[in-house]
Amino acid sequence: MRLEGSGLACIRGGREVFAGLGFSVDGGTALLITGRNGAGKSTLLRVIAGLVRLTGGRLTLSDSDAEATVAEQAHYLGHLDALKPSLTVAENLRFWAEYLGNAKPTADDTNAALTAVGLGTLADLPAAYLSAGQRRRLSIARLLAVKRPVWLLDEPTAALDSEAQDTLAHLMRQHLAGGGIIAAATHGSIGLDGARELRLGASQ
Amino acid sequence: MRALAALFVRDLRLAVRVGGGGGIGVLFFLIVVVLMPFAIGPDLALLARIGPAILWLGALLASLLTLDRLFAADHEDGSLDLILMGGTPLELAVAAKALAHWLTTGLPLVIVVPLLGLFMNLDGRASAAVALTLLVGTPALTFIGVIGASLSVALRRGGLLLAVLILPLTVPVLIFGVSASNAAIIGPLPFGTPFTILCALSLVSLVIGIFAAAAALRHGME
Fold first, then answer.
1. pLDDT in tens, B90-115
2. Helices A89-101 + A132-145 axis angle, to 10
3. Is the model's pTM score more than 0.80?
4. Which of A22, A170, B137, B168 has the most CB within a 10 Å radius?
5. What is the rounded average pLDDT of the residues B34-55?
6. Domain that holds residue A95
């Protein structure tokens, strides 16, 4: 499996965010997207996730489900947590597992995902009472509850304490070991050794 | 199908939980209709004559109340991004959300009409006629409304714009809804003609509404 972009260009609000951008990530490896504020890191991830339209270039995911788009095979962990405060932790996770997986998740699957991010004991708490770090963990649990080969992570360690950062690094290594692909926009280290780096040009 | 069912159930849950606004529309409807006899005065014949129109207007405004949050809430917390990535056609996701919205906002309005008909001096037959026209007419209001909801999705104060965008489009629904009710109550026109046109308006808005809303959402994401 290989995620490949060539000649990518994106214009937002009349401003060219990037142009002629190329990258490729093989299965089992990670790509760290770095660059100054406004360099287009988040935009690139949203482009891969199909949430922002490309104005040029091609984006392909080879050796994968030919029927599905790249976006349908990718998890996107953005700045927003996509949680409903009035639903409980388990209900939030079950909904996304069911919606994104298009199948009813087993209780074991969601419990295992919650336990993996350290929220196993809070399953019945409304998400309104979660701290920023706990909300982030719940979002990460979503990546585990539904299997998708590509993980698009935007500042994944934001709001996480050092223990949770270690957990996340462990989960990412597991995902890579299983042949998955990770593209992460980051400013610092996220605990992945040997990851390729894609440095985006400075903002104009 | 599983994904759509999940989205539908989630929206139903959100509507009935704290802060979901499930009962707001009915309360507003109640207040508007209860105020009318005070404003118009105790002229029972007049109330009965304008009753169907008042009930329809109240239902129209009440169904708009929570519509602006339909997509805006999902947009603000990032859920809309994931809904777009789900692999379910966006049109069907919009339809599932609209259906859940109608069940929690439109249907309760229909259910309280027999009660509110008393305030308007409507007899049982007249109330039943209004309830029946609202039952087939409120889906049209919802499905026209989702177009406005998706156009105003990224706006902070989208509610007012939504009303301005949507209310002109609901004029045909209002006309045929009220005229079908009146035809059933006082005649002399047959009830069937305006009623079938009202049904047709609901079906047309179902198709146009979900496609237009999905297109507006895709376009508005950037």
1. 999 999 999 999 999 999 999 999 99
2. 30
3. yes
4. B137
5. 88
6. 2-199
Q: How far apart are the C-alpha atoms of A151 and A143, rounded to whole Å?
A: 8
Token representation of residue A33: 């997207």
* Domain count along chain A: 1
Pairing of strands A150-154, A181-185: parallel
Distance from CA of B89 to the nearest CA of A (A): 11
- pLDDT level of residue A202 (50, 70, 90 thresholds): low
A201 to each of A17, A39, A153, B64, B117, how far by Cα in Å? 9, 6, 19, 46, 67
CATH number of the domain bearing residue A72:
3.40.50.300
Q: Is the pLDDT of residue B147 over 90?
A: yes
Q: Which residues of A are less than 8 Å from B87 in CB distance?
A: 68-69, 72, 100, 102
- Strand runs labelled E in chain A: 2-12, 15-26, 30-34, 56-62, 74-77, 150-154, 181-185, 196-199
From the list B78, B72, B77, the residue with the least C-alpha distance to B101 is B72
Percent of chain B with pLDDT over 90: 51
B83 has a chain A CB within 8 A of its CB: yes
Give the nearest partner residue to A99 out of B77, B81, B86, using CB atoms: B86
Domain residue limits, chain B? 2-220
Please indicate whether, in this complex, the C-beta atoms of B10 and A76 are within 8 angstroms of each other.
no
Number of residues assigned to chain B: 222
Q: Which residues contact B181 (CB under 8 A, 6 or more apart)?
A: B52, B55, B56, B126, B129, B130, B133
Quickly state the pLDDT bin for B197 (edges 50, 70, 90).
Answer: very high
Digit-coded pLDDT (tens) for B186-196: 877 888 889 99
Cis bond before residue B188 (omega within 30° of 0): yes
Nearest CA in chain A to B84: A51
Q: How far apart are CA B55 and CA B121, in angstroms?
A: 12
Q: Which pLDDT value is given to residue B222? A: 66
- pLDDT top residue among B220 and B33: B33
